[in-house]
Amino acid sequence: MPAVVLGTIAVLVLILRWASPGSPNRSLVARHPRSGPPDDYGLLVAVSAPGTYVEGEIQRRTLEDHGLRASLVVTNDGPRVMVWPEDEQRARALLRSPPPGTQRAQPRS
Questions:
Q1: Which CATH code of 3.90.1180.10, 3.30.70.1530, 1.10.10.10, 2.60.120.10 fits the domain covering 34-98?
Q2: Tens-digit pLDDT profile for residues 11-34
Q3: What angle do CA 36, 66, 85 make, to 5 degrees?
């Protein structure tokens, strides 16, 4: 019986050592994401700088509803909606257009 208990403890110690950070890059446990500058996201291009995270999520979903792959990231400069370079022009055009069901104000004569 004591051998089973010692064996179980040894296995738990090995699992904990495997999952804990001995060095910064060894841990298998997910770390909290860190924010960086807007140009620190590889190939992704920022197409929008919304005022709030909620506005950014609405914009991201709008782009995804139109078939574009989009990400909302929190940068050092605030939230940014990011897309792949080949989708940049289409994404900017979609974000400039008014949402469906709304009308642009017509100038009065």
A1: 3.30.70.1530
A2: 888 887 777 666 556 556 666 777
A3: 45
